Amino acid sequence: MSRSVLVTGGNRGIGLAVARAFADAGDKVAITYRSGEPPAGFLAVKCDITEPEQVEQAYKEIEEKHGPVEVLVANAGITRDQLLMRMTEEDFSTVLDTNLTGAFRVVKRANRGMLRARKGRIVLISSVVGLLGSAGQANYAASKAGLVGFARSLARELGSRNITVNVVAPGFVDTDMTRALDEKQREAYVKQVPLARYAQPEEIAASVRFLASEEAAYITGAVIPVDGGLGMGH
């Protein structure tokens, strides 16, 4: 069955892998992107999720072409790493506004159609950093931890309407962001991972697609770690 799927930040990395996984399964996939050229093969809508008006406009375009969003993957996010001593108010608030409040905006707008249809799948992309913490990433970790409380509250609020809300918490993933690290840093990170390697974006996407499937209809409020064992016990 072809569903209307939206992946925010779907133009690269994990988001692009997720979008491709749903498209390969036959779903109608829309992605949002903020800058650069979007990949071919999707309904690509330019949207800055920190701007409520742009979020509303994006949904109108998607609904017009694909129908109401039935599966939402809130993936868009940014980092502004800095030690607390040097972290500015803007460094902190910008990351929170994009990663956490941005997720609130896109979920709230999707929820309108899901409530009407009495069904829906929402998957939020958090991070192992939100569970473990990471020096120099207090803003990012706070935003990603916030997604867990947000998702679990919504799971309780929306469950009776057959809407599931779950979280995927990736560890170190082989993307442009991690490839920008020097070899010494990459080796240091890998040493912390029991499986001794980075994840491929497709491995994150597989878990996301499962949570949006019929097989996962009785899973809600869950945090699924896809981190090679890095965050074990958290």
Structure characterization notes:
- By secondary structure, this protein is an alpha/beta fold.
- The protein has one domain (4-172, 202-226): 3-Layer(aba) Sandwich (Rossmann fold).
- The protein is built from eight helices and seven strands; from the N terminus they run βαββαβαβααβαααβ.
- The protein has helices at residues 13-24, 52-66, 89-117, 129-132, 138-158, 176-179, 183-191, 201-211; strands at 4-8, 28-33, 43-46, 71-74, 120-125, 163-170, 223-226.
- The chain has a seven-stranded parallel sheet, sandwiched between helices.
- The longest helix has 29 residues, at 89-117.
- The chain is globular.
- The termini are far apart.
- The mean pLDDT is 95.
What is the topological layout?
Layout: E1 4-8, H1 13-24, E2 28-33, E3 43-46, H2 52-66, E4 71-74, H3 89-117, E5 120-125, H4 129-132, H5 138-158, E6 163-170, H6 176-179, H7 183-191, H8 201-211, E7 223-226
Parallel strand pairs: 1-2, 1-4, 2-3, 4-5, 5-6, 6-7
Helix pairs in contact: 1-8, 2-3, 3-5
Pfam families: adh_short_C2 (PF13561)
EC number: 1.1.1.100
Active site: 140 (proton acceptor)
